[in-house]
Design a protein that fits this description.
Elements lengths: L1 H16 L13 E6 L4 E5 L2 E10 L4 H16 L14 E9 L5 E9 L16 E6 L2 E8 L5 H15 L10 E5 L10 E6 L3
Antiparallel strand pairs: 1-2, 2-7, 3-5, 3-6, 4-5, 4-8, 7-9, 8-9
């Protein structure tokens, strides 16, 4: 019995040590690197639950972005049916789907906070009707990482760079893209990512 306990502790230590350093001490979604390339990598993410809100934008609006963030922040601060505080996770994932709405001139933006691992099976429901729990399916994504302070224009540049580096539009879905930010507004050593969903 003691031997099994020791093995279990070793496995937990091993799992903890494999968490990327850019997650800091926060829960992050589990993934496996399938292949590394020169300036990007292909990852496979496990299915996971997230708390989500969404909006339509004719052009990128930092005020709307901030409003969406605080809707999710209020959820983890206690605006949920359990009235409980929920630990912050990383990254904050945004999904952009351009070319929708009237005359295809709008973009759907979805913002996501991951539900902590120990709450994944049964997260409390949001009390804000514009916030909801969503399931992100298992997903393969091409990922480009970069440092520094990021903004929407930087993300667009990095997505273009990632597409150019992959150099084969048949390998990914080009109708939407993801951004992932891992750091608070006052962090200095920052880690950012842009993702493209891989085709199979």
């Amino acid at each position: 019995m003691l031997g099994l306990v020791v093995i279990a502790i070793c496995l937990l230590d091993s799992a903890a040590s494999t968490k990327p350093s850019f997650c800091h001490d926060l829960d992050c979604p589990n993934y496996t690197v399938l292949r590394s390339f020169g300036g990007y990598e292909l990852r496979r993410y496990e299915m996971s639950q997230w708390v989500t809100t969404r909006d339509l934008m004719t052009s990128y609006d930092s005020h709307k972005n901030s409003q969406m963030f605080f809707k999710l922040f209020h959820y983890i601060s206690g605006n949920n049916t359990a009235g409980m505080k929920i630990p912050m996770t990383a990254p904050v994932v945004d999904i952009y789907t351009p070319g929708v709405g009237e005359n295809n001139q709008q973009t759907v933006m979805e913002m996501h906070f991951m539900i902590p691992h120990n709450m994944q099976p049964y997260p409390p429901a949001p009390t804000d009707p514009t916030v909801y729990i969503s399931m992100l399916p298992a997903l393969d994504v091409y990922v480009k990482s970069f440092g520094g302070f990021s903004d929407h224009m930087t993300n667009l540049v990095k997505i273009t760079e990632l597409k150019n580096e992959i150099n084969n539009s048949s390998l990914y879905y080009g109708d939407h893209f993801y951004t992932a930010g891992y750091d608070g507004p006052y962090s200095v050593n920052r880690h950012n990512e842009v993702w493209l969903a891989a085709k199979h």
